[in-house]
TrEMBL record:
Gene Ontology CC annotations of this record: cytosol
BP GO annotations: response to amino acid
Protein name: Lrp/AsnC family transcriptional regulator
Superkingdom of origin organism: Bacteria
InterPro entries (alphabetical): AsnC-type_HTH_dom, Dimeric_a/b-barrel, Tscrpt_reg_AsnC-like, Tscrpt_reg_AsnC/Lrp_C, WH-like_DNA-bd_sf, WH_DNA-bd_sf
GO MF term list: sequence-specific DNA binding
Record key words, sorted: DNA-binding, Transcription, Transcription regulation
Biological source species: Neolewinella aurantiaca
Residues in HTH asnC-type domain copies: 5-66
PANTHER family tied to this protein: LEUCINE-RESPONSIVE REGULATORY PROTEIN, TRANSCRIPTIONAL REGULATOR AZLB
Amino acid sequence: MSDKLDKIDLHILKILQDNSKITNLDLSKRIGLSPAPTLERVKKLEQNDVINSYHAQVTPEAIGLMVKTFVLVSLDWRKNQARESFLSQVETIDEITECYIITGEADFLIKIVCKDIPTYERLLFKTLQQIDEIERLKTLMTLSTVKDSKRLPYDYDGEE
């Protein structure tokens, strides 16, 4: 699809990644089109799964979620259906907000967001370590966030 995106589509994507609450009228002014064709372009981007959702990004600390960790997970591949079983259990744990299959020293990288250290400790010992398919866990505790960009790294201006 990216080969079919023109400069106006790319400009729309850049603006919406920075502020998806912008009105269609304001968006149309910023890209230099009237509101109707602007809305048509946005709808086309949605229909083609270039834009797949709009959502509120909530500040975790504002709702009492003070701990963010990344956990490297290595599975015991001798267990039957280890991957499928692990992934189905991950889906049921709300505190796991992201899960990636990775290469390197582990099989998965999971992001966990929770209230505090005691909550994380309970999750670690009473939930994660009870998953039979897990052979090893390695926690990487975050201290602070220095960058959290939501805009994908792409040349939106079309200049190389």
